[in-house]
Amino acid sequence: MYTVIGTAKSRAARVLWMLEELGVPFEHVAASPRSEGVVEFNPAGKIPVLIEDGTPITDSTAIIQYLADKHGQFTHPAGTLDRARQDSLTQFLLDEFDAALWMAARHSFILPEELRQSAIKDSLKWEFERSQKTLMHRMGEGPFLMGEVMTVPDIILTHCGNWALTARFPIVEHKLSTYLDRMRERPAFKRAMAR
Q: Which of 20, 110, 117 has the alpha carbon at shortest distance from 73?
């Protein structure tokens, strides 16, 4: 059985959602970053942590891709062109969406107050809006990013979309808003967010 450490209001939500989609049993420990139960498995104190057979795996993207590969769902096979496209989308979302939101969070409440630069948020919002326009050219036809099959990037994008709304980063692309609304209606997503 898997154990997921991390609150559902963090990137641990990605892992919880993947496990709910897979329909596999898991235990959830809703620990905060840098808490004792986290540092024991990840010296950096970051969440989420997935523990399988006593082995901790860190970083939400590494975890959800591992789970997708292991269970043969929500991913394309390694070594295929579809997997290359999937990995490219994953990296794009991490570089353009997750990074902007994380930088804004750092300058809002994570860094010591004397190091925060609130003015940086304007440029991050500008970049976030521009990245949405780029993403529209990369989205496939169908209900998911790559078309008819839900993959790892869908979990990352939906999580980032929710994070953006919480952080007051505007979603300016109608197609993206519609996509996010549809993804949030998935029963597994709702179960994960209720934790």
A: 20
